[in-house]
Amino acid sequence: MIRLRPYKKSDAEYIMKWFTDKKAFTQWCSDKFTYPLTKEQLEYYYHKYEKDENAWIISALNEEGIPVGHFLMRLADYKKESIHLGFIIVDSKIRGKGYGKEMVSLAVKYAFDILKVKRVTLGVFDNNPAAHNCYKSLGFIEEKYNENTFIYGNEKWGIYNMAIEKLILIIFEKKLDSIYKALELQYLNGDNEGKGFRVLAYRNDGYTDMFDDLSLNFNPNEKCDVVEKGLNKHVKRNVEDTVFEVTDGCVEVSFDLEDLEKRKIHVYIKEQNRKKSITMNLLAPIGHYREAPSSLPVFFLYDFDFI
Questions:
Q1: What is the domain range of residue 191?
Q2: Which of 252, 233, 116, 98 is nearest to 179 (CA)?
Q3: Which among 104, 180, 194, 205 is least surrounded, fewest beta carbons within 10 Å?
Q4: What does the alpha-carbon distance between residue 218 and residue 222 come to, in Å, rounded to a whole number?
């Protein structure tokens, strides 16, 4: 079991012992530190981010309260509702046992539930498959790949920019509507899409309508051919009065939009449960029932829950 707490200066004695070679060290810090790591470097690092109101240094502890992991949360942007994870590392003696995955999972949960952001990002070098696969298993997706961006000796390393975001799927248990059977609210925040909400409306005829908020960068040629029978209409709409909060014991979701038939759709859900929610991770294949899908993606849904 892993616990998180703010970094203490005394944690430096542990972190300095976790690096056994320069290459692994460079994969961790991208030359932001000098090998071998010293107490003086970590002292400077501590004071630098102690003054940064949008960053926090975090230590991960094992069952005995001993530091076994470390990461930095920085670039907290409350307008874009995002935060970045960096300098992610676990004790070299316990790697491959799931500690890193649990630590990053707790970091994401803290970002979503405590900081109330809707997007968490990180970067990983392409020659670090263990870390790359760990992040993908938690639900991070690759948004951009920058090839040959870092020089290490005679080697050129690329970097994957990855992100994880919130979404909620609302399924009608009974056929309550003549057109739609389910609605999916997504939050997008990327260079291509822009920042804002998207609603996927799953139709009773098997097709999907996609409504993009006016704040998003609308792309009329965007494909949506792996969901249900495919895309029916992709249009711009005001997605208004949006609330998207999920915390222990309470879920609150609301949004308003106008559908293709010019009907006003108002969604409001607020559920409070005294029992502690037990979330799960879900592997969701998409497109397997399409007649001619362009791809067969598999989405890993992190912290999935039924409400």
A1: 167-304
A2: 233
A3: 205
A4: 9
